[in-house]
Amino acid sequence: MIEIEPILNGNRLALARLLTQIENDTHAGRAALSGLFPYTGRAHLIGVTGAPGTGKSSLVNQLARHYRKSDRPRRVAVVAVDPSSPFTGGAVLGDRIRMTELSGDPGVFIRSMASRGSLGGLARATAGIVQAYDAAGYEIILIETVGAGQAEVDIARLAHTTLVVEAPGLGDEIQAIKAGILEIADVLVINKADRPGVENTERALRTMLQLAHPVHRVFRHHGRLELASPSHALDAQSPVAPLWVPPVLRTVASDGQGIPKLAEAITHHQEYLVQTGDLERRERARLQNELEQRIQEALVNRWRAAAKNGQFEELLKKLVAREVAPEEAVAQLVA
Amino acid sequence: MIEIEPILNGNRLALARLLTQIENDTHAGRAALSGLFPYTGRAHLIGVTGAPGTGKSSLVNQLARHYRKSDRPRRVAVVAVDPSSPFTGGAVLGDRIRMTELSGDPGVFIRSMASRGSLGGLARATAGIVQAYDAAGYEIILIETVGAGQAEVDIARLAHTTLVVEAPGLGDEIQAIKAGILEIADVLVINKADRPGVENTERALRTMLQLAHPVHRVFRHHGRLELASPSHALDAQSPVAPLWVPPVLRTVASDGQGIPKLAEAITHHQEYLVQTGDLERRERARLQNELEQRIQEALVNRWRAAAKNGQFEELLKKLVAREVAPEEAVAQLVA
Asked: What distance in Å separates the CA atoms of residue A15 and residue A12, rounded to the nearest whole number?
């Protein structure tokens, strides 16, 4: 049994202990998350994803510093997730770099998670950690992942604003692979923008953006067909829901260049989400998804508890021997 | 209602029609697959995956030709799956290239599928198409996908032997991203091996292989600890189950160089799977996975049919308003 009051009151040790329970998916951790749920839904969730070598961790670091040092300092929490193979060790390294600059600030909380078991388990643990941060009163939550396919999509579902980070000199091929990732980007960041080739990277990204947001994604505006543009997105007077076209921004995270502009773009996107009702829609879709997942689990657990001993094994054996088709096996098992 | 006899008898038109039903996930398609199930489990399934630009389609093309022209010609079927965004159009292009060389051969059947809807739906349709090919008597089934994350893993589960295709000059970064893919590779192919930089690519792959198959993956052999090696894998006299270490092979698919060696490696892997009992284990794991998926679906469908009208929507609303926690909502919905 985990007390939730200390977590709501900002006790860091209590939060750290809860995160461990969430990572290990214990009963106590689940119960505590259930108790914390009414206090969630207030934080702005920012996803940060990109290939290894783009400098995501430094960028997250600088964004955290920026939010701490602004006129109205915000409480910032970071969860860094490395869904790739254990031998890359990215999460651990990233943690060490950040610790030196931000440790000691009580308004910042950082947690790293490396791959453990299934991708599904990792996505669930990340969602739980974000929920705990949210209830604990962190206003900005940064969710950092190494770009590795399905993981980004899961995290894009979790985050309100998703940054996709690129860097010059990663080659054209990488961009061909990552075309799908552009579709989840709300803001595109070219980090390490002091490196040669930054113009090429920006040109390639803009070309791909045009492909990802093609001409058919126009909308009716005062009866005329128009292409969506960022200026529309920020125009509160617009009578129709505008489209958000991801801005492309340059940063040099190592010395903080471009970070204020990036924070501004994130704020713009947040305003856009609120004005268009997208924030509510995303939130609702996320909770619907979670509810469906949990119903499914509950049904399977109940079925398992009631299932006849050995019947599953027996039918699986017949299935392997092609003596029964899957449909028949299921009909018998679920009868 | 689809007749299954014409499909078992090798009628191409009947097979083509069934594949369309499977792609559209119709009731008739499912029923036919159920009827065909007893006739499956005979084909060797070969997965071929890799980044865009590696020449996978040409490689698949050449492998199909090789199996057709061998001393004992095998019937070959290909399913090319492009899970990436619609705007890449890879599947369609690949199809056109292959058609010119293999069309007219009654021993070859080719089908392309582009992304439609969910990744899960695509993986299921691919599994159905492979099952139909298998029942129709195709002995070699080639499953081609563009490397895009989760899709490869799903296909590796389906295939008996998975080829991962690389090419020189794709840069180091790409290889860092794709490290996870090495873990699903049974055979590594460096295609376009006549290009400069092939030595670097091979060196990088071998380094990564050592990371993916680290020293702790040794096994006891006559009481001594030994590192696994391909020669052990092929030694039927070995008293312990050896490990398969993926060979690294060079090919030039455009003119057929290296294709016979590649086909040989595939045969070796097939023999290895049979000798170690891995083929049976993989098959069993695949069917267990399918059975679990279907039980889950059946339970959800049954729940949906019995659910009170509007109760789900009502509880979702309360969830969004934080008036109820997910656990409580599920308890009420599943009660």
From this structure: 5
Contact A139, A99 (CB under 8 A): no
Q: Which of the four pLDDT bands, split at 50, 70 and 90, describes residue A117?
A: low
**Rounded-to-integer distance, Cα A154 and Cα A120, Å:** 9
Separation in Å, CA B313 to CA A82, B292, B323: 35, 28, 14
Region of B275 please: left (phi>0), alpha (psi -120 to 50) or beta.
Answer: alpha
Please name which of A326, A153, A269, A241 lies closest in space to residue B31, comparing C-alpha atoms.
Answer: A326
List Cβ neighbours of A294 (8 Å cut-off, separation of 6 or more).
Answer: B326, B327, B329, B330
**Mean pLDDT of all residues in A229-257:** 70
Neighbours of B38 (CB within 10 A): 13
Please name the residues in contact with B324: beta carbons below 8 A apart, sequence gap of 6 or more: B315, B318
Contact check, Cβ <8 Å, A176/B52: yes
**B290 shares contact with chain A (CB less than 8 Å):** yes
The reply to whether residue B176 touches residue A53, judged by beta carbons under 8 angstroms, is yes
Q: What is the pLDDT of residues B175-225, one digit of tens each?
A: 444 556 677 889 999 999 999 989 988 888 887 777 655 443 333 333 333
Q: What are the tokens at A10?
A: 């900002």
Of A180, A291, A300, the CB nearest to B148: A180
The 10 Å CB-count burial string (b at 16+, else e) for A9-29 is: eeeeebbebbbebbbeeeeeb
Across the interface, whether the CB atoms of B37 and A316 are under 8 A apart is answered no
ipTM above threshold 0.90: no
Is B5 touching A (CB cutoff 8 A)?
no
The residues, ordered by sequence, that sit 6+ positions from B161 with a Cβ below 8 Å of its Cβ are B44, B45, B46, B47, B186, B187, B266, B269, B270, B273
pLDDT of residue A245 exceeding 50, the answer is yes
Residue A215 CA, chain-centre distance (Å), reads 28
- Scored b (16 or more CB within 10 A) or e, B278-287 reads ebeebeeebb
Q: Would you call B208 an interface residue with chain A, using a CB distance cutoff of 8 Å?
A: no
Contact B214/A at CB under 8 A: yes
Question: How many angstroms separate the CA of residue B42 from the nearest CA in chain A?
Answer: 11
> At residue A64, what is the residue type?
A
What's the pLDDT tens digit per position in B241-261?
Answer: 568 889 999 999 999 999 999
Tell me the pTM. Answer: 0.69
From CA A95, how far away is CA A110, in angstroms rounded? 8
Distance of residue A212 Cα from the nearest chain B Cα, in angstroms: 8
SS (H, E, C) B139-178: CEEEEEEECCCHHHHHHHHHCCEEEEEECCCCCHHHHHHC
* A324 three-state secondary structure: coil
Of B183, B214, B300, the CB nearest to A296: B300
Min distance A38 CA to chain B CA atoms (Å): 5
Q: Whole-angstrom Cα distance, residue A149 to residue B84?
A: 11
Question: What digits encode the pLDDT tens for the residues B106-126?
Answer: 899 999 886 655 556 777 889
Q: Which residue has the tokens 């159905």?
A: B128
Residues A317, A330: Cα–Cα separation, whole Å:
13
C-beta neighbour count of A313 within 10 angstroms: 10
Task: State in Å, rounded, how far the first CA of chain A is from the last one.
Answer: 38
Closest chain A C-alpha to B321 CA, distance in angstroms: 9
3-state secondary structure of B216: coil
**Interface residue A322 vs chain B (CB under 8 A):** yes
- Beta bridge mates, A169: none
Largest CA distance in chain A: 71
Asked if the Cβ–Cβ distance from A334 to B299 is below 8 Å, we say: yes
